[in-house]
Write a structure and sequence with these properties.
The protein has helices at residues 32-44, 70-82, 93-102, 111-114, 117-126, 144-156, 184-192, 202-206, 212-221, 248-257, 266-307, 314-330, 335-364, and strands at 21-25, 49-51, 85-90, 106-109, 134-137, 162-166, 197-200, 226-230. The mean pLDDT is 92. With 365 residues, it is of the alpha/beta class. Strands 1-2-3-4-5-6-7-8 form an 8-stranded parallel β-barrel, surrounded by 5 helices. Bound molecules: phosphoenolpyruvate and manganese (II) ion. Residues 27, 53, 57, 110-111, 137, 167, 204 line the site of phosphoenolpyruvate.
Length: 365
């Protein structure tokens, strides 16, 4: 389905909206001293947009759930004393009203909120007739349609300055990351809405400090437009997300190390095009093999129907998994990769066989 958003170029504070857009500040506003000390150090390091959560969506109750409205006054002071733009998270109409009253410059919708169309609509309704930039984090689940839906709701309410924040996705099995990046999701968002700016949130993707640089560099290599990185004057003492926050000076070091590769470098573009051609051909072959495999699967489905046996044969599936993982490891392919590929193939095979069974039932009637 085509996506038509009416977007306006962001022009918040001139230079600071040029790539890469950098947003920094603590996970949460905790005290006036912490908010001001972090803001002053960031401003001295050239950061122009300051983030701080006032109302914090926490996974379990009894954690620090944000300092509340008083934090808005501190953000007002940040703006006055440092000239930085300020941004905070809103999750309902009341938050929106308070932020607008307090003169917050940019709003963001968190990952748990953007997964909920009722909440997004409530925020959109509260913003009707208001001209303010809104950043929308990806929903916690990797559903690009739901993410796009949130942009459409805001855009239908008249919000034209929109930014996407890629912050990774919840998964049941814990990986290296706190939130699995699943880069294909923001890449698909870019394909669907090319004019929408996308910034990456390495802090919530990593959940730790040591991977922040690599994830930030990857975002730059994918040509995304910026980074939002949690920064605190005393990270180890932070009241939320302590393990992923860095100091303003560490942020500066990270930003200085980033390499910006030139999109237009002709030579590398040409060799890239050649390699991409090879990939296209290989993918074509893969699809032909999938087609052949599914034809065999349909034959097996017919046999199972005739012999009245179940589609799922657990022992056979277990044997396949073990055998394919062993074959893969001999070719340098990880167990995780082989398992994912064969789980997807197996699921499609089950779907095909179910169709075969049902088709036969209909014909018998
Ligand atoms: C945050 O940015 O502090 C936050 C709560 O993020 P998310 O919505 O991505 O979990
Ligand atoms: Mn956080």
């Amino acid at each position: 389905m085509g996506v038509k958003l009416e977007l306006e170029q962001l022009d918040l504070c001139g230079e600071c909206m040029k790539r890469p857009i950098i947003i920094a500040g603590p996970c949460s506003a905790e005290t006036e001293e912490q908010v001001m000390a972090t803001a002053k150090d960031l401003a001295n390091n050239g950061i122009r947009i300051y983030r701080a959560g006032i109302w914090k969506p926490r996974t379990r109750p009894n954690a620090f759930e944000g300092i509340g409205s008083i934090g808005l006054e501190w953000l007002g002071k940040v703006k006055k004393e440092t000239g930085m733009q300020t941004t905070t998270e809103v999750a309902n109409a009341k938050h929106v009203e308070e932020c607008l009253k307090a003169g917050i410059d940019i709003l963001w919708i968190g990952a748990r909120t953007s997964a909920n169309p009722f909440a997004v609509q409530e925020i959109a309704d509260a913003l009707k007739g208001v001209d303010i930039p809104v950043m929308i984090k990806n929903p916690v689940n990797p559903d690009v349609e739901l993410w796009i839906g949130a942009f459409e709701r805001l855009n239908n309410a008249g919000i034209k300055r929109l930014i996407a924040i890629h912050r990774g996705f919840s998964v049941y099995d814990k990986t290296l990351f706190r939130n699995d990046p699943q880069w294909q999701v923001p890449i698909e968002l870019r394909r669907r809405i090319p004019e929408l700016k996308i910034i990456t949130d390495p802090s919530h993707i990593c959940g730790n400090r040591h991977m922040l640089y690599n994830v930030s560099q990857k975002a730059m290599d994918l040509n995304f437009d910026g980074l939002i990185i949690e920064t605190h004057n005393t990270p180890d003492l932070a009241w939320s997300d302590a393990s992923q926050q860095i100091t303003p000076d560490e942020l500066l070091t990270l930003l200085k190390r980033l390499i910006f590769r030139d999109e237009g470098d002709l030579k590398s573009m040409i060799s890239l095009a050649e390699l991409r051609e090879q990939i296209d051909k290989l993918d074509d072959k893969l699809i032909q093999i999938f087609e052949k495999r599914m034809k065999v699967v349909e034959e097996i489905g017919k046999h199972k129907k005739e012999s009245n046996i179940t589609i799922l044969q657990s022992q056979r599936w277990d044997d396949i998994v073990k055998n394919r993982i062993s074959l893969g490891s001999r070719k340098g392919l990880s167990e995780e990769f082989i398992l994912k590929v064969f789980q997807a193939i197996h699921q499609e095979s089950i779907n095909k066989q179910t169709l075969v069974m049902n088709r036969n039932q209909d014909e018998e009637k």
